[in-house]
Design brief:
By secondary structure, the protein is of the alpha/beta class. It has one domain: Rossmann fold (3-Layer(aba) Sandwich), CATH 3.40.50. Helix 2 packs parallel to helix 3. About 40% of the residues are buried.
């Protein structure tokens, strides 16, 4: 059982992602924007982070870059989960340190496969 931090500013998206993660048997932690997500990653050291991109304060690309560059959190894999579905967005997200990229609306099997490939379960 892993601990998964979900960072998303939409309560409905957060609930949908939480359902998928809990179905896989993992514990869910949440944050409502990129800045809170970076803070939670440093404090909680989760096994995986699901990161939205379009958020207030600090967007998901910026938050992912901070997490992946910080020696305390760089080992935590980040999956970007976003409505931004252009190839350039995906390339940019991976360059910020993301290990996978899943577009919304979420395909539950695709998200589950991405989670399993990074932390098992």
């Amino acid at each position: 059982m892993a601990r998964v931090l979900i960072v998303d500013d939409s309560p409905s998206q957060l609930l949908g992602l939480q359902r998928v993660v809990e179905k896989l048997g993992h514990v869910v932690l949440t944050a409502e924007d990129g800045a809170a997500g970076v803070e939670a990653a440093r404090r909680e050291l989760p096994d995986l982070i699901l990161m939205d991109v379009v958020m207030p304060n600090l967007n998901g690309f910026q938050a992912t870059r901070q997490i992946s560059k910080d020696p305390a959190t760089s080992h935590i894999p980040v999956i970007l989960v976003t409505t931004k579905d252009q190839e350039t967005d995906k390339v940019w997200g991976m360059r910020q340190g993301a290990k996978a990229y899943v577009t919304k609306p979420i395909n539950e099997n695709q998200l589950s496969d991405a989670i399993k490939s990074l932390i098992g379960g």
